[in-house]
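Why do we care about 3D structure at all? Because function follows from shape, and shape follows, mostly, from sequence. That is the central idea of this module. The next example makes it concrete: a single protein chain, its amino acid sequence, and then its structure expressed as tokens.
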Amino acid sequence: MSTSLQGQPIVGQAYEKFQHFNRDEKLHALDEAHQRFLHTQAADMDEAHKKGKAERDIEIAKNMMNKGCDPGFIAEMTGISSIEIDRLEQRHSETFYSFVVTHAIILMFIKTHRTEPSKVLCKRN
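And the structure:
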């Protein structure tokens, strides 16, 4: 220890604790486990942040599609690849088509059976 610090009691106590820590294998093992835990926790948080951002970008892309934006513009603004934009458009089209077909079937059923829409759409016991 430096001679300029030897006269300070608190510094001497801290130095003794430091030396004790360096000699204690259990404390070293606990410290290493704690450091691994902190590293894993930070990596998990980073991964969760990336996943959340990706999900947010996809939602933004879907909203832009609904507004009729150009796929190239969507890719540029969100950072999503043009291949993924094409996949989203295909899924969006399939979902929209399913909605339209289902809606048409319900309307035909209502017209054919001359019933109220609420009786078709809601189960009543």
